[in-house]
Amino acid sequence: MAEPTADRPHARRPGGRNARVRAQILAATAELVARDGIAGFRYEEVAELAGVNKTSVYRNWPDREELVVEALLRYAEDLASVADTGDIDRDLVDFALALAGGLETPFGRTLAQAVQPARQNSTVEALTKVLDQRVAALRRRIDTAVDRGELPPVDSSFLGEMISGPVHLIVDRGMRPFTRTDAERIVAVVLAGIRANTLRG
């Protein structure tokens, strides 16, 4: 009966210690998955890297799949961000650069492998939320640009695919680093085509 008291000397700060423990566990999980892949990590390794007892991992996440998903979603939050500087050309260039940077990380490679059609499972379906968040953020930025007159009316999903597709192609080939010049060329060609199409219409 004395165990909870001995194990939690700082009970006067509700949630404080547990929040820190959870954050350590999530960070450790993301690091291990990025290093070894989704199927390669064990709770024992998570606990050791996080500096916590294995029971803390099990207590917070009795379901291994939920731990992986929550860790990677938190780790990937930055991949979903799209700046709004008021200059759509610049913002799309920055987005393409950030996307390439994310894809070149161990996490990005793990995510790309995980979402292959042949590997579909419930974990992978949940991980696609990362991609969904990124697509939604980009669509919102494009729609805002249309509302402001920075761009002619355009299908934001299609424009996003036209920007993202070449980034994936260059990064996946692994022949050379993706540069700002690459991003600027992609954005310039895509937006010039969209704007020219509108003028012809």
Automatic annotation (TrEMBL):
The keyword Transcription applies. One of its GO terms (molecular function) is transcription cis-regulatory region binding. The keyword Transcription applies. Residues 42-61 bind DNA. Keywords: DNA-binding, Transcription, Transcription regulation. Residues 19-79 form the HTH tetR-type domain. InterPro entries: Homeodomain-like_sf, HTH-type_TetR-like_transc_reg, HTH_TetR, Tet_transcr_reg_TetR-rel_C_sf, TetR_C. Pfam families: TetR_C_11, TetR_N. PROSITE patterns: HTH_TETR_2. SUPFAM superfamilies: Homeodomain-like, Tetracyclin repressor-like, C-terminal domain. This is TetR/AcrR family transcriptional regulator. The lineage of its organism: Bacteria, Bacillati, Actinomycetota, Actinomycetes, Mycobacteriales.
